[in-house]
């Protein structure tokens, strides 16, 4: 740190202040000695450009954002706003209410909810009082909120940042947005689950990111199959973590890891492999229902019956064509208890709408962009009486979508507008600052988005160039003649056409042209 | 912490897993023994309602948000969205671009920027790597962003949360939103400053919070007066901190603190008191210009000349009537170098629009709701070549405004709507679940905001009650007769009037009625 290797700015301030003794540097002299003013300014504002320290300080000072985080520039913000607006519109179309929770929670609120990933949680320094951690997702704070406020049913959305000390990579950050929609409450089976998948489908379609696929499984089915194949129950979690890698590494590697690292017999792994590599439509569910081993497992059969009901609802919602049942989907988080799902993008810009059964070869290589599932026990973990509130939800992982949308935008429109300014108030002559200010005041008070250059006498050329650079479509020009005639010269930046508009009609004309 | 005093959930899982030996609890049995399933479920989902641990765990578990933070419920969110939308509209009306920065910064980025308040910064635990702190405001990250990206001019807004370990109190939180607008770049004097004050004025007017007052001062004027009165320059900062208390405690107390704690002579303090208790319009500036002491201080005279120019601009912008020059305004932050300002609400619901000179008695007692100023040296502190980018900005402190708006909303409309749902799809008869799902799918795909109850066979009464409770204005009812006739019965929830609408006209009818 700069402040250790070299004097800190305030250290330096004190040194300078001492070097100048009160006798030679009395306050009453301050006004008349320009040099001392400079020193005082430096002193007062901790100006680190001052000599003795600046070089070292500068060298040691790291100008960056923390690892795995990034700033969002105006162009990215513009795209982000559009993406958020599509997501929010869908959430609201389904009657969701918004809530907000703090960025940090008591550490114990997050304890025991994320399995092996708990090591990725950011802890705050204990500065006298509570042990705090940055939220890891929006689901656990939501469950805490429900239990704390004794809410037994709600359809809520939340769009906020979450924090994970993961290894940063392509589209993977340590700080990232999640857009969550959840339905809490006792309802008839699979109806809320189907609506969640419908929303996921709507959003991914409306974002126009290309082909996508929603993989669906059920924790009960997965664990039922693990049990059926002879995996000891204390290895369910750790084996699931390996299963989750199947979309990244080959089955051979997954198989080896299960045998060598998880200590499963080759027979068990091979039996398991027959099941967890299955994926496809309704036929897969039927196949499993008739399987001699699986059909003996009550938990698995419950899940299969639920998935079939879910499929019938998804058909009515017009979503089934994008859904594939994938027995190898495990999802890392501890809290899921039923249906789980994950959306992935398909490779290539022009994917067919229908996903063929048993074909996940076309999945693009950067992981899921949306996921979720049912978690019926999480709220109960926070409730003093263990009272359960069944929940199901989705979480849209916005960063990967954004980086795709940004790439797309980069290609289509090089000069994406980052402001919404409708008109620049300009003058071709000097000494019209006050007139420009008067005109812009009138425009602002009518709700017109207007700018003027913060120069007393800007050149007309630089005013026009500003419009071209920032995409402002209109210029309202005033000068001696216009003021005398009570008009404003309205210029279309693209066509360069200029028309004199009576001052009283200007606002209507601007509104008309930019609506 | 619960996990120390009692077994943690995962600890308990392992214990249970060991107690049940593989011989008596083989996986293949799992499907047929209901009891073991319950145990497995608990085991898999870390169900802490399980016997041995639950009671203690529950007792020790604190269900709360961290000190000084709070959840935002759907009603508050609805008001918040309205407030944000007004603020954002004003920012965009003035041509601002949006940016976003991470919630934490490298600790050294924040070091030496906040004076005595630095102790309120939240630090993160060093988890191998960087020393991080939660942002204290949006200004320092903005300056870091400008320096890092070598941006020399920008008009930007940012609406984000900031973090201060302050003592929580009425409308004062440790996590709170700031809505910032800043203009960076070399421009003609006081033009950007005037626009900032114009925006502050617009937003506070449009929020309709009642009367308000914008206090304006200049750091150079304040320090010039301190020098003029004989305050030693190494005490400028600490004396300013005391001056800043003048809006909370009486002059007598401020005077005593300056003499007893800051070690100033009573003569100096009394001389100072003559100046810093001055406030009012242009006359105050004229008075100081003619003051025999102040007129000798170049820095103070520069500031006075700037404030006069600022006043002339504010008059054109129609803002001057809410502005008072207040020589006792100091502002705590280190980085200000010129004009500073702060907006306060006036007491009483019906304040006059014009604020009389020398009258700040009516200021409501809960501090500023918006503030800002000029900081010309901050970006240079981050730049490797010390290259300066002059900046000026405002920050709207939203929490106090929100708590006021919420109180107001509470009084006016008891039943504020938290969703935007236009229609509930319902049925009076059982067995119409699939038909409801078909109809709602059609509505959603036309962009209609629609809900249905997640019940197979809900009663009509409970469907109507849901509408009344949540404010949904329309119900689309289907049953045997309606399906046969190809119509939907559209019910107005308020008037209870019902009309049969041909199915093909339904979307248009809903849009018409809810537009």
Automatic annotation (TrEMBL), chains A, B:
InterPro entries, from UniProt? aa-tRNA-synth_II, aa-tRNA-synth_II/BPL/LPL, Anticodon-bd, Anticodon-bd_dom_sf, His-tRNA-ligase, HisRS-like_core, HisRS/HisZ, HisRS_anticodon
* GO terms for biological process, alphabetical: histidyl-tRNA aminoacylation; mitochondrial translation
One Pfam family hit? tRNA-synt_His
UniProt entry tagged with the keyword Ligase = yes
Q: So what EC number does this one have?
A: 6.1.1.21
Q: Where does L-histidine bind?
A: 137-139, 164, 178, 182, 331, 335-336
Please provide, in alphabetical order, the Gene Ontology terms of the cellular component aspect for this entry: cytosol; mitochondrion
Q: Which GO terms describe its molecular function?
A: ATP binding; histidine-tRNA ligase activity; identical protein binding; RNA binding
Annotated PROSITE patterns: AA_TRNA_LIGASE_II
Catalytic activity field: tRNA(His) + L-histidine + ATP = L-histidyl-tRNA(His) + AMP + diphosphate + H(+)
Give the record's keywords alphabetically: Aminoacyl-tRNA synthetase, ATP-binding, Ligase, Nucleotide-binding, Protein biosynthesis
The residue ranges of the Aminoacyl-transfer RNA synthetases class-II family profile domain are: 68-356
Is Protein biosynthesis included in the keywords of this UniProt record? yes
Family statement drawn from the similarity comment of this UniProt entry: Belongs to the class-II aminoacyl-tRNA synthetase family.
**Mind telling me what this protein is named?**
histidine--tRNA ligase
Give the organism the record lists: Engystomops pustulosus (Tungara frog)
């Amino acid at each position: 740190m700069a402040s250790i290797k070299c004097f800190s700015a305030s250290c330096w301030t004190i040194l300078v202040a001492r070097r100048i003794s009160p006798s030679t540097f009395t306050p009453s002299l301050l006004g008349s000695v320009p040099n001392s003013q400079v020193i005082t300014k430096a002193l007062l504002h901790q100006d680190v450009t001052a000599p003795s320290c600046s070089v070292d300080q500068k060298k040691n000072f790291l100008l960056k954002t923390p690892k795995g985080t990034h700033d969002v520039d105006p162009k990215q913000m513009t795209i982000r706003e559009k993406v958020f607006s599509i997501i929010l519109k869908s959430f609201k179309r389904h009657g969701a209410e918004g809530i907000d929770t703090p960025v940090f929670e008591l550490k114990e609120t997050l304890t025991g909810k994320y399995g092996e990933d708990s090591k990725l949680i950011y802890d705050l320094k204990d500065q006298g009082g509570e042990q705090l951690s940055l939220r890891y997702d929006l689901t656990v704070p939501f469950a805490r909120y429900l239990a704390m406020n004794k809410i037994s049913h709600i359809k809520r959305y939340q769009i906020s940042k979450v924090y994970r000390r993961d290894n940063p990579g392509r589209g993977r950050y340590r700080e990232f947005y999640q857009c969550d929609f959840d339905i809490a409450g006792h309802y008839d089976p699979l109806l809320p689950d189907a609506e969640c998948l419908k929303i996921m489908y709507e959003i991914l379609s409306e974002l126009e990111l290309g082909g996508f696929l929603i993989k669906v499984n059920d924790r009960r089915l997965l664990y039922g199959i693990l049990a059926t194949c002879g995996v000891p129950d204390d290895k369910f979690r750790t084996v699931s973590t390996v299963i989750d890698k199947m979309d990244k590494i080959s089955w051979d590697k997954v198989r080896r890891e299960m045998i060598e690292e998880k200590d499963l017999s080759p027979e068990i792994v091979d039996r398991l492999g027959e099941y967890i590599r299955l994926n496809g439509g309704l036929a897969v569910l039927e196949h499993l229902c008739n399987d001699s081993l699986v059909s003996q497992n009550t938990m698995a059969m419950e899940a299969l019956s639920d998935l079939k009901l879910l499929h019938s609802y998804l058909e009515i919602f017009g979503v089934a064509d994008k859904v594939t049942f994938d027995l190898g989907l495990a999802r890392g988080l501890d809290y899921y208890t039923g249906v789980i799902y994950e959306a992935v993008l398909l490779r290539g810009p022009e994917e067919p709408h229908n996903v063929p059964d048993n074909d996940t070869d076309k999945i693009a290589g950067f992981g899921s962009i949306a996921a979720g599932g049912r978690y019926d026990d999480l709220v109960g973990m926070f409730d003093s009486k263990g009272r359960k509130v069944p929940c199901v939800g989705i979480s849209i992982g916005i960063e990967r979508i954004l980086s795709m949308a940004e790439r797309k935008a980069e290609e289509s429109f090089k000069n994406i507008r980052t402001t919404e300014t409708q008109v620049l108030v300009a003058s071709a002559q000097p000494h019209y600052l006050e007139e420009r200010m008067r005109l812009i005041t009138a425009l602002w008070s009518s709700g017109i988005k207007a700018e003027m250059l913060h120069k007393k006498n800007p050149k007309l050329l630089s005013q026009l160039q500003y419009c071209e650079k920032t995409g402002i479509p209109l210029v309202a020009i005033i000068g001696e003649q216009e003021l005398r005639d009570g008009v404003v010269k309205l210029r279309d930046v693209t066509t360069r056409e200029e028309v004199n508009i009576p001052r009283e009609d200007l606002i209507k004309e601007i509104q008309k042209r930019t609506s």
